[in-house]
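Predict structure. Chain length: 274.
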Amino acid sequence: MDGGSATRRDRRLQALGRLVQAQGALRLTDAARALDVSPMTLRRDLAGDASAARDLALLGGHVTLASSAGPLAPRAGRYVLDREQESQAAAKRAAAHHAARLVREGDTLFIDCGTTLPYLVAALPEGIALTVVCYALNIANLACRRPHTQVVLLGGVFHPSSATFSAEEGPDHLRRLGITRGFFSAGGVDPGRGASCWNFHEVPIKQAALAAAQRRHLVIDHTKFGRAKPAFFAPLSAFDSIICDAAVDAATRAVFADPRLDLAPRQANGGAGR
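Prediction complete.
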């Protein structure tokens, strides 16, 4: 290989390394698109002996860090599940409990990732038979404790920052399932562009679940309105309802003037639902 080609390969690998450090494991096709090369070019780059290639690995169609120590420590501005766990907990709980009232005996539910929807699992009606389809470890752990509940966990490469899995075959698996209701999370909701999340690897899973579900519900707390995260996954028109806690101010309600906005009842003391 001539010096010019080697230099271009090194630059690509360095850029790829920065992407993986910033976003976690990436689908090979998404990484190739971001770098404006073909997936085969990236495969050849990663199979080479450049020092940058030794820091990366190709697993199950995803590019990830090869270090046995796992991904680098989270940077400011990145989503980290543990850090988000207690943020707006009362508002998340209120929205999730309001969403749980929609669930019926025999439903097959898709339950998205994040820190709002674990409250939904906790609030599901007791004693009824359900199937829960998920790709997040925190959701699966809670659902597995329920009696009469069959859990379908989509596997693949594990992403520690969000405790989620992703695999190329995951969306195809979802499309073959008869999902009666899908409950979706988002890191941001914009009236023009729609719902967004932090992690690009979540987008194909969310979109496949939206296509498969008979009814689709976006479950968020009031702080998500007016925010935009890097990965947009659906327009607001894709959802049958947008379920939120009661602490949505008048200005936000005016901007998001949507009949599908479904607010949890406000507590008697004026606070968000507990």
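Summary: The first helix runs from residue 3 to 23.
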